[in-house]
Amino acid sequence: MACAEFSHPAQITTSDHRVGASMFGYTNEPFSLSRDVRAVIIPAGEELQLRAGTNRFITQSLGGSFTVYIEGNLFRIAGSDADALGKEPVPPPEIPENATDKDIEEVIWQQLKTCYDPEIPVNIVDLGLIYRLDVVPGENGQRSVSIDMTLTAPGCGMGEILVQDAQEKIVVIPTIADVRVELVFDPPWNQSMMSDEARLQTGLM
Prior knowledge:
Layout: E1 29-32, E2 37-42, E3 47-50, E4 55-60, E5 66-70, E6 73-77, H1 101-112, E7 130-137, E8 143-149, H2 159-171, E9 176-183, H3 196-201
């Protein structure tokens, strides 16, 4: 996560003309906000409002949310505000007809893989942050979802933001009536919990 001390090649310069050469090979895309929009400072997690006409660069646009660089700082803009950046919001997932609980669980895992660290292109599943996922059937074909997830560093300011992102990505799945995502810190996260792909992307392999 943004609060972990990874040795990775993502670099940000303080030049307004260019944000490094790239972040893990991702090209930085200029933008200009078409309206006021809420944003979260990375990694502090504090929310503020960016004004219409603000411009600089999109450094990451994975999973429907956006990381933007403005005047030497990184900010996260939610996918629901994609239009302010001139982007299309990601449509909700589709499920098979007469989907089983197993089908729904698979869709949930796919949705969780669209929740990305705001600084590096690694999702929370490959980072090893999801400890438990339960799907409980309810009445009228509705389901409840309960998840335990952790952070790479306790007290990270982006924790609640990632929890909210996970909830929002799951609640839009058809038949999901209730989602509960709880932050836990036992066992403590360590780098061995990351997938091989995540280790490669963060320079640990």
